[in-house]
Amino acid sequence: MNRDVKVYRITGLALLSPDRLRKWQKFTVEVRAVKKEDAIERVLSELGSRHKLKRSHIKILSVNEINISEAKSKFIRELETVERWFID
After folding, report:
1. Is position 84 within any domain?
2. What is the count of structural domains for the chain?
3. Is the pTM of this model over 0.85?
4. What does the pLDDT average to over 33-53?
């Protein structure tokens, strides 16, 4: 069983309603996950939590596995260099 963590770039649409005007807005999120399904679950969970969206208000258009060097997020790139975690 392969447990290597991969980087996924997920693009989609989210139904946002500022000032009661319902509008679909594009989003692109990069996440680290073991499987494609885990990456999708993480994005749905985070968008729902941050923006109070129901899952039916989020449409995933594409999920692509990318190389770490292609990641735009500095946080994602830096996580790749972590060797050990220290807890005091």
Report:
1. no
2. 1
3. no
4. 94
